[in-house]
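User: Predict the complex.
Assistant: Input components as received:
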Amino acid sequence: MSSNKKYWKSVEELNENSSIVEALQQNEFVEAIPTDEFLGDKESLESSSTSRRDFLKYVGFSTAAASLAACEGPVIKSIPYIVQPTEIIPGVANYYATTIADGYDFTSVLVKTREGRPIKIENNTDAGTNGVANARVNASVLGLYDNLRVKSPMKGESSISWDAFMSETTSKLNGLNGKAIVLLTQSMPSPSTNKLIAEFKSKYGNVSHVAYDAISESATLDAYEAKYGTRGMANYDFSKAKTIVSIGADFLGDWQGGGFESEYAKKRIPTHGKMSRHIQFESNMSLSGANADKRVPLTPSQQKLALAKLYSEVTGNSAGGVKLPEGLDAAVKAAAKEISLAGSNAVVVTGIQDVNAQTVVLEINSYLRSKAFDPETTIKTRQGSDKAVMQLVSDMKAGKVGAVIMSGVNPLYTLPNASDFKDGLAKTELSVAFSMKQDETSTNCQYIAAAPHYLESWGDVEMKAGHYSLMQPTIRPLFDTKQFQEVLMGWTGSTGSYRDYLKSVWTQTVLNGSSFNKAVQDGVFVTAIAGGRNGSNGSSTTVESTTELKDKKDRTFLGGVIHDVAVGVGIKDEDKDEYVTSTSSTTNGNGGAGVLAASGGEAARALAKSTKGGDLELSLYTKVGMGDGQQANNPWLQEFPDPITRTTWDNYITVSKADAESYKLINENAANGGLNGSYVDVTVNGVTVSNVPVIIQPGQAVGSVGMAFGFGRTAGLKAEMQTGVSAYPLYQDFNTSQDVTISKVAGVHEFACVQLHNTLMGRGDIIKETSLEIFNTKNKEHWNAIPKVSLNHIETPVTSPDVDLWDEFDRSVGHHFNLSIDLNACTGCGSCVIACHAENNVPVVGKSEMRRSRDMHWLRIDRYYSSEDTFEGDNEKKDNISGLSSSLSEFGEMEHPADNPQVAFQPVMCQHCNHAPCETVCPVAATAHGRQGQNHMAYNRCVGTRYCANNCPYKVRRFNWFLYNKNDEFDYYMNDDLGRMVLNPDVTVRSRGVMEKCSMCMQKTQKTILDAKRDGRLVKDGEFQTACSAACGNGAMIFGDINDKDSKITALKEDDRMYHLLEHVGTKPNVIYQTKVRNTSKA
Amino acid sequence: MKKPYQSLEDNPNYNMKQVIYRSLTSKMYSLCLVLLLAFSSSLTAQEGDPANGKSLFNSNCAACHKLDKPMTGPALRNVETRLSEEQGLDRAWLSAWIRNSSSLIKSGDAYANKIYNEYNGTAMTAFPQLSDENISDILAYTAEKVDPCVANPQPGCANYVAPVAGGSSEGGISNDLILGALALLFALLAMALVLVKRTLDRFADAKGLDVAEQTKRTPLWKAFAQNQFLVLVTSIIFLLASGYFVYGYLMQVGVDQGYEPIQPIHYSHRIHAGDNGIDCKYCHSSARVSKTSGIPSLNVCMNCHKSISEVAPATLAEGEEFGVDYNAEIQKLYDAVGWDGTGYTGESQPVKWIRVHNLPDFVYFNHSQHVMVGGIECQTCHGPVEEMEIMYQHAPLTMGWCINCHRETNVKVKDNAYYTKIHEELSKKYGVDQLTVAQMGGLECGKCHY
């Protein structure tokens, strides 16, 4: 796809005007198949000795004979252990705490193993920080069973032994004659590894260690280092913020290492009539923008201006003349006003890769003394330095570097100037890459040191200052691999295992007397200093008390101004705050701020000078599915639909509708529902990436385009996974925003997009939405009314038994499961989708099947746009339509999303209707209802009529069009013995021709019940979990038993915000949704 | 793939006859024992009861000692005589050693230290609870004369079983004889009848009597074919019958009841679970907590077989009936686990058992649910395992079989706090005292299929 090479099969093809080539391309069969000749000729048919009936008889007989002959069962072997490890009981899962630290994702996780095989990643709820696995981390378990992994150390193309590897590399390292040795690694905030590297340095002398992040946070690190003296990033706790202003920071995505969404979500659920307010300024439609209460689209260069403006508005320091378009100017001013009013309850973040921008943000937050801003708990998961990497490339090119040893990096793929690096690599005397793959870099090195997966390794990470996390192996190494640290120990001549080394480092420096075994069991360890911190900012603690207001809910306000944006109405008296206006105002109390602001002012003035280069600005971003592209060979992630565009197996350039029109770029739907798009060539600074498909993205700032990293890899990947176009060549100077030119090229790209860019068109039955003001002031009937239907011309609520077609079934005895999905807390991140994939053995179907809408995801996250600026606006417009002509035209208009639409995410899985339409139409009773509320699906009974799928109003049933396991046509993980090891042994692997769907994780509820029965006790609230609810770190999905009157789920079922999807259909689902409330004063 | 079926019909030895045999041999064995006891007690001048001594020996000493072969400790046959003859040690020394060997060693006793060192410094467990009488019983047992019949049955012994050829047995021979005699009898009768008729015909001829000529009648088959009613009825019966058989054939497709594969090691549940009375869950311990009952790992076997390297002669004799040498089978275990009689060699190889009970992949069955929560006996589904020489599939394992049991079995709700509330409410709802599994929801598809 991305290749420029032209292939030809015959010389004729090179002749552009050849009619033969044309004819050949048009027709699959050059000559018509002679069907008519045979079937049309009565004589030849009659003379044929085999009639049609005979043929059918033979087919029938041979099928019957073959099937009867196949009735003998196979001989199945059972091979027990010789000595069974005490902790392993076949059929019982073990959980181990470990940590992923692949340089991009740093998360403490629990690993579920069965019979010694890791099969699923779960959140480590004991971890105070970074304990929530995102979609990539959830999918990372599949990387362990990747059969394209390097299986032993290699020298060039051939395998060698570790002994040979060690002796050859050691002698080369010793024979460098003082030439520099460079360790080029991913960010490694690991105390033990750093100590090892120090020992390596002292042994070999001229050694330098360069940390390299594929997607750089260098500007953030530089700004933080300049202000606070250590290299790292400031921590943010969004649960402490009431007003969040983000300028280009996708903090619900991968911004600054990610992991902020669960705290953010806590404050998004309206409690006591209050929730946080989130304003987002951005160019691409990001997850954060989609979740914002107010989203302002603007180009990357305007973001810098807006930040400068915001700085001057908030702090009062001049930032020089900032020229912004009028609307933007007003939006920035309004945001600044809200920040000032919220005072220390506000926080500002930015994702602009510019030291000035990052400095300004640090200044604003310390000026505000923002509670959410915590510069002391330094985030250490990014360490890369752009300058050091660039220096290394030029040194290598100059031949100054004797040996390069790489671990966890793939610079030949991720570096914008990869060819320079390649030249440099050739000039080194020794090049070693620790890699799990024969990837772009390792194939160009002299040695590939086969590295283990993180689930096979020991390790440690200091995620944030004082917050440590341990990595332990959960399976014996599958291949002949050694981890970087082990080999380092070999090179330095230390004996013993890395595990013992790690333990001794921890005992000496980290644990301070605590038990190592306990730390390994927990997976996390928090030092006393970090645990004692309250997370409030430390830079101006001396003056904090003067402006503190007395507040029941521990909130502070600046200058005694009482304000809650769009809040404060309809709040019960006891929840109201007692405000004690402090006489000492912030301006005089904040002595230090002026000094600090000087540098901030300079930075802001520098920002204000930034200008726009060309017509279009490119904003590079990462998808929650693919990240930096390390896991490109993971079919789960390839098939994971992007939360915003809902596109799978691809990346693309996102353009606004206005720009698409001016460049004549089109998106259109093919007859089969698939999305087709134009191609463009994208050029930045003379570097062109050709044939990038185009998606017209609602909400994309006019004058900007977006493109995701992580795609376009080719080395060490299965052919199916070589999707998309690499954006790294455009990532010049490690800057995510670039001036760009695009030009349309011929051709039509076929996307595999599971949801079109459709709007909700005011259908309030699907997503119920309201504003905080209405939520607080009006009663439930106004914003969450139960639909009514006409019964004998009387409006009757659809929940009434009188209008029901079915008889009610008593479900008050035993368990009755419900799943609540809070649309306010759901950020659309998609961890649940991958968790469901892993738990339920959901097959991967591939791009072409996805395009045919044959995706198998049991759980999808629908994304809806509004046609007006808000969903409320849509509703009003729909209600005001009168007459046929106006309805025809206006409904037509409403199909198109607005330029800056509101976005809503809605996870949809089987709704487990108590009155399920699918059950009544099944001719073989393969789907039936259980007393516990679950809609059962007996695969062995299903004959595949698909009536149920047709009758399902939620379209959640999935049909196995093919056999997806052990089928060469679907060469994903289920087609090799290694990949199948990830399958959950408790869930059936479905075969061709049967229907499947969400079972509400029947295997998990059954297990919980059995455990309770065996212990002879009742099930406690919170014990019941589905894969999705367990994966959701945001608390958006709560699962439980509504017959347990004290449970969380019962409270949620009674909540005013509760509604059922398409309630008017009367299906009485067991999945409930909580109305989305937006913190907007205006509807 | 051809299944290595060993159906019951193929192996007459494994059939009911083995039951007869077993009772027969055990009777002989006890007879032999009685004889032996009477014989030996009359001979030994020692006080002490060797019968009681044997049971004491088995419960206290047999883990480390054998009579004729050194194991963890020395062989003990005639230990008292040997000691007094060779070392000049009396019973007092022996009693002191048995009650507390380590103090004897510490006291510097020469022979005690010699023995101690000879057996790798392993001190013998102290048995202070054994009374003088107990010790003399045990010693009486060790002093018993070896009865050649026990160790090696031979002609003349009470327990001698003549080797039988071709798997046929006494009962079989007599049956054949009777049948043969009967057949001969019938043949003679038939011949007599033919002769009588011929004679009568000749008489009639001679007397000129005219035997009435049979009028030519329509042949039976023609009459049958002409009678449409009969044809109809017969064809209906024929159709029904063939339908019945076809249905029967189809319903047994995939049902492997009686499946009895030949296993890599001839493991006898009869000996372990039956004769020795080992609890099923001692070896299949995962049945308590897991969905699988678990094939025991070889270290579980070695818990006992570390000290049981040979079976008792009587058991060995039983093995001959099944054509198996149990000692050789134990040796197979040792080879697999890598045990050379004194220690592990580290060279092991897995035992590839052939799975007998195979549920389809789309069925979820959990042993702990049934065994622990339901309190179901293993034999309910697995049949009389304690009588099975070779494990076979007892139950059909069809869904109908599962469902029937769920309909009939009551849930064991007593003393289980989980069930208290739900049982109270449900039994009120259904108006019953005891809830069946079906009433508890055990017939819902999704409870087993997911």
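Chain B touches chain A through 57 residues (CB under 8 Å).
Let me know if you want any component modeled separately.
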